[in-house]
Design brief:
single chain; alpha/beta; Rossmann fold; seven-stranded mixed sheet; two-stranded antiparallel ribbon; 9 helices; 9 strands; globular
């Protein structure tokens, strides 16, 4: 399967279905962001600490695989010069709609997060990358490209799954709440699903997911020249929440 094209169509379908990550922020959130106060999420529940952003006024911010009219409009309202980069044209339309509705200046670019060739070295002061590398098979190019387009001393704020999210037998968990380990990580829907399951994913426009190891997520950033300078965990996977945090957020600084 063409993973990039399949997931573009799948996320366009999520927009049509009203997935929570495709619903733009409202005017009240924009008003508070203009006063320098906002809740921006990299993971499902906990907002990013405000001191992770630094001074946003006139800063150059890349919202990486971050379409949907959520992070980009808040940052633009706070005074940043924002570029939203995403694979889904429908997600990017959410940001364009929000820009028109709220009078914001947001640039949108459609593409593959593994290739930021449209941006020069050191183009950005800040990168905001919410949970989205779940939808690509190889995340090392993401870290390398992000590091390349960050200025020295710039920050990358990232959210991603705890690997255990991709080890669970979710069919069983959703049936009776029992969390049983079924898969090894790294995990790939493209390799693990049966032919019939893939056909169903294609028919229903269900996103293909990939589970990456902590070494790929954290050591991958370090190898790309990013020093981990902030960290927190979050919940948001109902069946797992009684046992462990299921999401991770990091702040990394380009060295």
């Amino acid at each position: 399967m063409d993973i990039l094209e399949h997931n573009r169509r799948a996320w366009n379908n999520e927009v049509a279905k009203g997935n929570r990550w495709t619903v733009p922020v409202d005017i009240s959130a924009i008003r508070t962001a203009r006063d320098g106060k906002f809740d921006l999420f990299l993971t499902p529940i906990k907002p990013v600490p405000m001191d992770w952003f630094g001074d946003l006024r006139d800063s150059r911010v890349l919202c990486l695989a971050s379409g949907g009219g959520q992070q980009g409009p808040l940052l633009a309202a706070a005074g940043a010069c924002v570029t939203v980069f995403d694979n889904s044209d429908a997600q990017l339309q959410r940001d364009r709609d929000a820009a028109v509705k709220f009078g914001l200046n947001i640039e949108t670019v459609q593409g593959n997060m593994q290739d930021l060739g449209c941006s020069e070295d050191g183009s950005f002061d800040l990168i905001v990358h919410p949970v989205s590398n779940t939808f690509i098979d190889d995340i090392q190019p993401v870290w390398r490209e992000a590091s390349r387009v960050l200025r020295r001393g710039g920050r990358m704020l990232s959210g991603f799954d705890n690997p255990i999210m991709h080890m669970i037998d979710w069919d069983r968990a959703e049936q009776d709440g029992t969390c049983i380990l079924k898969h090894a990580v790294p995990y790939s829907d493209a390799n693990s699903l049966s032919a019939d399951e893939k056909a169903t994913y294609k028919r229903d426009n269900t996103p293909l997911e990939f589970g990456h190891t902590l070494a790929q997520q954290i050591a991958g950033q370090i190898a790309a020249g990013l020093a981990i300078t902030g960290f927190y965990e979050d919940r948001g996977a109902d069946e797992l929440d009684p046992y462990t945090d299921s999401f991770i957020a990091t702040m990394a600084t380009k060295t």
